[in-house]
Amino acid sequence: MTQFATADLCDAHEGEVAVLEPMLAHFGGASRFHGPVQTVKVFEDNVLVKSELSKPGDGRVLVVDGGGSLRCALVGDLLAQMAIDNGWAGIVVFGAIRDSGPIGAMPIGVMALGTHPMKSIKKGAGDVGIALTFAGQTIRPGVWLYADDDGVILADKPLH
Fold this sequence. Notes:
With 160 residues, the chain is of the alpha/beta class. 18% of the residues lie in helices and 34% in strands.
């Protein structure tokens, strides 16, 4: 993976990037990751998250708008491993994950608001491939997401 720093990308592409508000924490073994975005919007239900991660990732980042709920987890170690096996670069969750210890040893970027030990419901409700709005930005499928220890930025095109 090509090395980058979000701070350097912000400097080099001033006016071309959007920055997510700093509310997400790193949980995956890769704190630096990037790729084009695929989106999922759910609430306390991870069926569509699993469905997307079961597809070829092709270096993409799955961005999950879980409504900011911290009452259950939307991603655990089994889904993180599925993402690795299917070539996803990372998962960003506006909500909670679980199995943070094992996920921290996995070679994938995983960011979330926090952790919760309870699994989600399994009804399959939600939307895939729609614009999401959280952390002060609107995130559309196909935009490029770059994440590192300084934060998360979005761009309409690859930056490096």
